[in-house]
TrEMBL record:
Listed name of the protein: Glucosamine-6-phosphate deaminase
A GO biological process held by the record: N-acetylglucosamine catabolic process
Recorded name of the encoding gene: nagB
Alphabetically ordered keywords of this record: Carbohydrate metabolism, Hydrolase
UniProt cross-references to PANTHER family, sorted A to Z: GLUCOSAMINE-6-PHOSPHATE ISOMERASE (PTHR11280:SF5)
Organism in which the protein naturally occurs: Cytobacillus solani
Glucosamine/galactosamine-6-phosphate isomerase domain mapped to chain residues: 10-228
Organism superkingdom: Bacteria
Active site: D67 (proton acceptor), N136 (for ring-opening step), H138 (proton acceptor), E143 (for ring-opening step)
Statement: the UniProt record of this protein carries the keyword Hydrolase: yes
Family named by the database record: Belongs to the glucosamine/galactosamine-6-phosphate isomerase family. NagB subfamily.
């Protein structure tokens, strides 16, 4: 794993965006895996800024997001589809039909999981997957205890994850209890992975990622077994490490 240490969240966002922009420029029809969440917001702002200033085109890019809450429609402000549309897709020249977020409000979510896996395969697999990391080491919504063999499926969210994400909802009770997430095996099949982490709230997770064992108790630890992982993290997340 290559670690890029940057000063703060602003620098992280800029660096992660430059990283992605270079990849898109080199392969305009790339298959890009995306994440939602607070950490990715700044990166997306810089992608938009670059698009407006330098016209980097996303017309031929296909995207697959990691996850979506079960029960939320894409128009619901708390859905990850809504997040992606408003924070990124609506501001680029990407074709909406090429952007994929699991649908959390379908009649048959189990079928949705299988369809999503198939679609990723049909498109030739993910070239570069952007990841955030949960305080408990989750990647996507693969919570501690998730099998390293897992594929896109329905999962129950950990209480700590629901509490972490409650800041986006009116109250904790509104945070869905279940989600669809790409599995760990699905994520590991990406040709390349870029993980971003910011703030002291991620420090313990970074310590376990960089210094701990590979264990299903800490899902992100599997990334050590991937041959092409880059981590961009800020000082606050890396204090006392390296
Ligand atoms: C979101 C996702 C999650 C987040 C993680 C960090 O699509 O897959 O794994 O990346 O929870 O979230 P933030 O960035 O809000 O700290």
């Amino acid at each position: 794993m290559k670690i890029i240490r940057v000063k703060d969240y602003e620098a992280l966002s800029k660096r992660a965006a430059s990283y992605l922009i270079e990849k898109v420029r080199n392969k305009p029809n790339m298959i890009l895996g995306l994440a939602t969440g607070g950490t990715s917001e700044g990166t997306y702002q810089y992608l938009i800024k670059d698009y407006k200033g330098n016209q980097t085109s996303y017309r031929n890019v296909t995207t697959f997001n990691l996850d979506e809450y079960i029960g939320l429609d894409g128009n619901n402000e708390n859905s990850y589809r809504f997040f992606m549309d408003t924070h990124l897709f609506n501001h680029l020249d990407i074709e909406k039909t090429k952007t994929h977020v699991p649908r959390g409000n379908v009649k048959d979510p189990l079928k949705e999981c299988d369809t999503y896996e198939l679609l990723i395969k049909e498109r030739g697999g993910i070239d570069l997957q952007l990841l955030g990391i949960g305080g408990n080491g989750h990647i996507g919504f693969n919570e501690p205890g998730s099998s390293f063999q897992s594929r896109t499926r329905i999962v129950e969210l950990a209480d700590s994850t629901r509490r972490d994400n409650a800041r986006f909802f009116e109250q904790l009770e509104d945070v869905p209890t279940h989600a669809i997430t790409m599995g760990i095996a699905t994520i590991m099949e990406s040709k390349e992975i870029l993980l971003i982490a910011s703030g002291e709230g991620k420090r313990e997770a970074m310590r376990r990622l960089l210094q701990g064992d590979v264990s299903e108790d800490f899902p992100a630890s599997i990334l050590k077994k991937h041959s092409h992982v880059t981590i961009i993290a800020d000082e606050a997340a890396l204090t006392g490490l390296e």
